[in-house]
Design goal:
Elements (H helix, E strand, L loop, with lengths): L2 H16 L2 E2 H11 L8 H13 L3 E7 L14 E7 L1 H11 L9 H9 L6 H29 L5 H30 L18 H8 L8
Antiparallel strand pairs: 1-3, 2-3
Helix pairs in contact: 1-3, 1-4, 1-5, 5-8, 6-7, 7-8
Keywords: Coiled coil
InterPro entries: Metal_resp_DNA-bind_regulator, Tscrpt_reg_PadR_N, WH-like_DNA-bd_sf, WH_DNA-bd_sf
Protein name: PadR family transcriptional regulator
Length: 219
């Protein structure tokens, strides 16, 4: 399974743990709650759902949705498949929730993992946060080394773009330091208004979109 497919599997299982949903509703939740999935289409989602059903982690049920925008104009009702998490699916999500390897620290997966931190144990949250911080500190060191080597060859605009990328990573490192300190002290972290991205409940997805291409500056 590819890394991107693994992220989608994790998110689908996590959302369906909250309540059963049909495909349209699930896709809407992926798009609105987890900004990293805004580019996903039904062509990506339904093969994932089919695989999860085959694995026994989801069950399909048939129902109707009067508010589904894809409903036929005449009846305004459309038979739909509702996806429900099975007992095996819950165990699978718990297994994924406890994983703290390098994939959990990367840009795309970290944003999704963070969205489910409310269901994650404290020790796992700490390992993921500390792993993410280490990953970004490594990236920051590479960016600084790259800038030191190439700054004399770059025009002012390219140099400013690299500085902007570096500042984005530095901001996230500071934010992670605050989160880690909050976890150690056992107090909840509250995002300040300036942390939030446009139309987002917090700034996590905005920051990860900004930081997701920093590796490109190290070449």
């Amino acid at each position: 399974m590819s890394r991107r497919s693994g992220v989608l599997e994790f998110a689908v299982l996590g959302l369906l743990r909250e309540s059963p949903m049909h495909g349209y509703e699930l896709r809407k939740r992926l798009n609105t709650s987890l900004g990293v999935f805004r580019a996903f289409s039904y062509g990506s989602l339904y093969p994932c759902l089919k695989t999860l059903v085959q694995q026994g982690w989801l069950a399909e049920e048939t129902g109707h949705s009067p508010d589904d925008p894809r409903a036929t104009p005449l009846s305004n009702r459309r038979a739909k498949i509702v996806y429900r998490l099975t007992a095996d699916g819950k165990e699978r999500f718990e297994e994924l929730l406890g994983q703290t390897g390098p994939d959990a620290w990367e840009d795309e997966h970290f944003g999704v993992r963070f969205a489910f931190f409310g269901q994650t144990s404290r020790d796992v949250r700490m390992r993921v946060l500390e792993g993410r911080r280490s990953r970004l500190e490594e990236r920051l060191a590479k960016m600084r080394a790259s800038m030191a080597r190439t700054r004399e060859k770059l025009d002012a605009y390219t140099l400013e773009l690299q500085r902007h990328g570096m500042e984005s990573v530095e901001r996230e490192v500071r934010w992670l330091n605050e989160l880690i300190e909050s976890e150690r002290e056992g107090r909840p972290h509250r995002a300040s208004p300036q942390d939030r991205g446009p139309g987002e409940p917090d700034g996590i997805q905005g920051r990860h979109r900004a930081g997701s291409s920093e590796d490109d500056t190290t070449t």
